[in-house]
Amino acid sequence: MNTSPPKRPRRANLVAAAPPATNIAPLDPHTLGQIAEDAMRALLVEGESENTIRSYQTALRYWAAWFGLRYGQAISVPVPVPAVIQFIVDHAQRKAADGLESELPQGIDLALVAGGYKAALGPPALATLAHRVSVLSKVHQLKALPNPCRDPKVRELLAKTRRAYAKRGVVQDKKAALTREPLEALLDTCDDSLRGARDRALLLFAWASGGRRRSEVSAASTDNLRKLAPRTYVFTLRHSKTNQSGADLQDNDKPIVGRAADALEDWLQRSGIQSGPIFRRIRRGDQVAEPLAPAAVRDIVKRHAALAGLDEDFSAHSLRSGFVTEAARQNIPIGETMALTGHTSVTTVVGYFRSASAIGSKAARLLGEDS
């Protein structure tokens, strides 16, 4: 029998061993070198969606053009607070004796349109103004510079500007929702050509799988598509606006069944696509070419809406809002709807449900159907 006392557990060595010698100069842990900062910016850019990057570039081009015309010099950061305030009052409308006006001189407005920095004369939508200020704020944040957009005067001016617009009854411009009836009208304009087969498959795929965003449609690949049974596919959405890290989530699988599955199978067979992007451009002679860009999804919706003779302003997002609105109209549980759309905010989805239920509310018909 061993009567010796038990051995004490060996204590961990808390003093790190000296690193091996190298000929590389050590870094200062309190500062970030230029190479590392450039790499950080590259990763931040790569992690953003293409649409976000494009919108940032457009906003910064506009800032540079406006600043150059307004001050006669190139823009540089940090931008002074008075310049940001000037930008806001130049582009926000306010009440005046003879109507609404803003401070942007007509000559500068004409030059901005002529240079392609804006599409039309006049002040932009409030959402556009707020986005451009937000982008400038992001630039200062990334460069760790004093941020003029966080100045109390700027923040109060933006808040009061939003309130002034709201008091005038100005609401954010929203595209019409493609509920079932207008969607059917769009589908009726898809002929039996190869392009018609593609557009029919695209519209049904985007709508029936939960209202996919245009970037999700253009990025859809056969690598993420499985056929489980006749008239039944499953599309795995591995990357989206609400899952930018590509996490393996339970709700990533989106069913495509019935008519949507039929249209998808018809397109895949006729196009001969067996791998890679699902929705592609069709060139002369029915040549299936490169993947569609996100903007092409919008163009397809608009073209078929025009062919159907619909007056509403439909866009790619109309597929998403239309799916949610139709789900509300048909009393689909919110949880089931969110599982397909990928919404993470119940508040956003509830808004569609309340709007749909209000239309059919008995309280709205207290005077009777004929009153």
Describe the fold and architecture.
With 371 residues, the chain is mainly α. It has 2 domains: 49-167, Orthogonal Bundle (DNA polymerase, domain 1); 180-359, Intergrase catalytic core (hpI Integrase, Chain A), CATH 1.10.443.10. It has 14 helices and 7 strands. A 3-stranded antiparallel beta sheet has the order 3-4-5. Strands 1-2 form a two-stranded antiparallel sheet. Strands 6-7 form a two-stranded antiparallel sheet. The radius of gyration is 27 Å and the shape is globular. The mean pLDDT is 84.
Question: Which key phrases capture this entry?
Answer:
371 residues, mainly alpha, DNA polymerase, domain 1, hpI Integrase, Chain A, three-stranded antiparallel sheet, two-stranded antiparallel sheet, 14 helices, 7 strands, 49% helix
Quick synopsis:
The chain has 371 residues and is mainly α. 49% of the residues lie in helices and 8% in strands.
- CATH topology name of the largest domain, in short, is hpI Integrase, Chain A
Number of strands: 7
Structural class: mainly alpha
Which architecture of the largest domain does the CATH hierarchy give at level 2? Orthogonal Bundle
- Which sequence of SSEs, written as H and E, runs from N to C? HHHEEHHHHHHEEEHEEHHHH
Going by CATH, the homologous superfamily of the largest domain would be Intergrase catalytic core
| Total of helices | 14
Helix coverage percent? 40-55%
Largest sheet: 3 strands, antiparallel
- Which strand-content bin applies to the residues? 5-15%
The CATH class of the largest domain is Mainly Alpha
- The quaternary structure here is single chain
Q: Would you tell me the overall average pLDDT?
A: 84
Q: Report, as a whole number of angstroms, the end-to-end distance.
A: 101 Å
Choose one word for the global shape: globular
Name the poorly predicted regions: none
Count of domain modules: 2
Gyration radius (Cα, Å) is: 27 Å
